[in-house]
Amino acid sequence: MQGDFYQLLKEQGYAFGVPGQADAGQELTTATTILAFKYREGVVVAGDRRATAGNMVMYDRTDKVLEIDRHSVMAIAGVPATAYEMARILEHSFKYYRRTQLQELSFEGKLRALSKLLKDNVAAALAGTGAVAPIFAGYDAEQETAKIYFYDILGAEFEGVEYAVSGSGSPTIRGILYYLNTWGEQPLSAMSEEQAAIHALRLLTSAAEFDSATGGVNRDAGLYPVVKFITADGVRTMSDLQLRPLFESKVARTT
Amino acid sequence: MYEEPYKWVEAVGNRRQYLDEQFKQGSPVVGVVYDTGILLMTVSKGTPKLYEIYDRLALGGMGHPADLEKLRFNLLEMAHVEGFNRSPSDVTGSRMVKYGVAPVIKQAFEEVFKAPFIVKILLAELGQKAGRDTFLTINYDGTFEEKNSHAVLAATPAIEQTMLAYLRQQHIPSLEQAVSAAICAWAVGDRAQHQALDETGEHDEGKAGRPQQSTDRDALYAHMRERVTEKTLECALLDRHQKGPSKYRAIDPDELGRLLPKDMNTLLT
User: What burial class does residue A58 get, using C-beta atoms within 10 Å of its C-beta: 0-12 exposed, 13-18 middle, 19+ buried?
Assistant: First the structure.
């Protein structure tokens, strides 16, 4: 089919999702807590920055919220090697489609593309070497609204009507999101951008409290989570300079 | 019959004549560097002639739409596979042309039993820094040239030289000035092509390319207004200020309306 970059890669001998067998004692690099929820103007997507292998912290500056194109973001949980490869394939696939077909790939088409990669990765995921459970969020130009989808490691796709979470720290914040959305002062979808950012920081800090594989905020090193907003204008990243005062005034406990 | 070398040379000569004939009524393409990017401009009828190839690469073409489409796909495949396997910064115009599309065009041109590509290509590349922007033009026989500041495609080399001579005299700091200069250069080229067509039976390129008429801006605008009827004025940019890795964007009619000189707005109606 014309405009299919993944197919083009396969025709050139590229193989994705090749299973390997993890040794019993082998600790693979994994991650994470990632979250996305709808706020007043669109969707906020956030993720901590820690990558771990068993008890070992491998890296504290991982970017798990990846901009795939001007209007979509993939947040990754699971084995980063596979997840980054998926993001690279998607990024090139969307660009290739737009440039060959002279139109944007539909939002639904983008969702299917990720689902297809996850399905091709099932063998590696079940072998224990490549499980990825991502969140995909983006602006659907046809329906004029920002949307959130999350996936299991087999490629099943679910819409997060109000929010979605993934990663080892996600059970902690899933409950909080439910509570906030149901009995909070206002539903998540009524929050302003600033309120959404504050809640994203609070949620990731909560996850880090109970999950050693989630990094949270490291004020000494000036390390803040990655927070991105998706609106009709596209994807925008909140800088550390903007996150710092929000964290100091609204998240950090001073007593 | 082409086993004998001199007959092959004769066949290639015939082919050159045939191809020259095909471009006589084509629409020229103009590429101009301005302070924050590159402008590509042409006038098209039906199918577009300006395309995005990769993050910093754009294509302008003259010739048969089906041939242009084939080579466009060739470039797109090459650029994206290379960008994926290595890195986007390894996808350079020079590599795409020298090791990719130019040999394909040359081979097709010299295989006298098969049809050649009826196409001339202009590839614009936005440099990582200002001052490093380049153009590569490829002729129908696969020969290519690298240029800075501006580049054009037209029916003959002589007409291209006339257009380039016009552009060299222009001062082009802003996008508005780039649009105005590109329109005038297009008009210079198109007018020369028409003049050459009128001189029936003559194929004197020197004569065709000679600037026999005024290069006064008003005269060129008048020619443009006359020629663009029922056609589309196409402009696209490689814009250094554009957010994200992809720097290409087509200029929509609203923006073009704001960029065009006041007395040229009628081109869009």
Answer: middle
Domains in chain A, start-ordered, CATH in brackets?
Answer: 32-247 (3.60.20.10)
Known active-site residue A29 = no
Note the ipTM here.
0.89
Mutation for testing the A interface, residue in B68, B71, B80 having most A CBs under 10 Å: B80
pLDDT digits (tens, 9 = 90+) for B70-120: 999 999 999 999 999 999 999 999 999 999 999 999 999 999 889 999 999
Please tell me the distance from the alpha carbon of residue B228 to that of residue B267, in angstroms, as a whole number.
7
Q: Are B138 and B146 in contact (CB under 8 A)?
A: no
What DSSP string runs through B155-178? SSHHHHHHHHHHHHT----SHHHH
Task: Return the structure tokens found at B23.
Answer: 């471009």
Interface of B with A in 239-268 (CB under 8 A): 243-244, 246
Q: Which domains does chain B have, with CATH numbers?
A: 26-157+231-268 (3.60.20.10)
Radius of gyration of chain B (CA): 18
